[in-house]
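Form 7-S
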Amino acid sequence: MISVVPFRKNYQKDAKTLILSILNKEFGHIRVPRPDLDNIAKTYQSNERSNFWIALDKRKIIGTVGLLEIDHPDAVLKRLCVIEKYRRRGAGKKLMQTLLQFAKDRGYSNIFLQTTTEMKIANSVYESYSFKKTRRPKKMGEITIYPTSIFYKLKL
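Output:
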């Protein structure tokens, strides 16, 4: 059974490895600096307006997602990743539902995200949750812009 829980420090290495392996295997994005993954708890859980969740099958991490406040009432969705063999089995849906409820409970009005045109499956997932393509928001934290970068916005 798949469960979604807030990130705990004992999962630091496994969460970072999962995210980087998916980015490398599927998109070749391994060489880009990702400072948020060096200390997930510090980046995503240092205040009550941001958080990071992991999807577990028993005790194995199978997915992740994070939400960072960028400028209230705006937040950014980060690191939605699910191991390939767990896709279409409800893990991504549970992660998204958890994140969206958290955002609503904290009074966010907009959730932004960055992706690339190569991430076709992820983009269709975002669009299924009513995210709409938009321009890059002025405040989005430290990000690397790729030639194929696209941005989405969800109005809550």
